[in-house]
Design goal:
- Helices cover about 70% and strands about 0% of the residues.
- It is mainly alpha-helical.
- α3 runs antiparallel to α4 and α5 (about 115-130) runs antiparallel to α6.
- It has helices at about 1-15, 20-30, 40-50, 55-80, 115-130, 130-150, 155-185.
């Protein structure tokens, strides 16, 4: 059963990764970066402070903890435990994997930290604002960032899907934790 799932994951990866062009290479490289999203994160913090005033300290702390936990768990628990090679490091397919800027990343890829982190952020913001347009926007952003990891040849779809699920679960936990703390502090 596991072998069949891994085969499907590899075949789907090879199909999605083959849909590349010079134009998309630069876009996906940009989307997958970290520094370029700093203005978005600053805007998120600004709007949280503007809307939630005193609660914003607990909200921002909870959000930051959710992202830190999703990042660290995805690396130190999943990648170190499962040790699934990234597609670009898999000698069986590496010669047909399209990578951009000769960047393959670390040796292991299960689960995608990009997916875990972006879906943690999207889920937390969605729970916080309870607005379908905000939710759709953030989940679309997280999906595009996650897809860029497949496009760039550094993650299988299963890595991305499981990373997204991990991020969602962790964000829900920290959102509920925020509600508990806010109630205890009478915020």
């Amino acid at each position: 059963m596991i072998d069949k799932l891994l085969q499907i994951d590899t075949e789907l990866f090879l199909f999605l990764n083959s849909l590349h062009s010079d134009f998309l290479d630069s876009i996906m490289w940009f989307i997958s970066g970290k520094i370029q999203w700093v203005p978005l994160y600053a805007l998120i913090i600004f709007f949280i402070i503007k809307k939630f005033k005193k609660k914003s300290v607990v909200i921002i702390a909870s959000l930051i903890l959710a992202i830190i936990f999703s990042d660290q768990i995805s690396v130190h628990l999943f990648k170190d435990l499962f040790q699934r090679l990234r597609p670009c490091h898999n000698s069986q397919i590496s010669n047909i994997v399209h990578i951009v800027n000769n960047h393959c990343g670390g040796k292991y890829g299960f689960v995608s930290s990009h997916a875990a982190n972006t879906f943690a952020l999207a889920t937390f913001i969605s729970c916080l604002y309870k607005n379908k347009y905000v939710s759709y926007s953030f989940f679309l952003w997280a999906t595009i960032v996650s897809f860029s990891r497949i496009y760039l040849g550094v993650h299988y779809p299963g890595d991305v899907l499981c990373g997204a699920l991990l991020g969602i679960i962790i964000a829900i936990f920290f959102y509920k934790n925020y509600l508990f703390v806010a109630k205890k502090l009478n915020l």
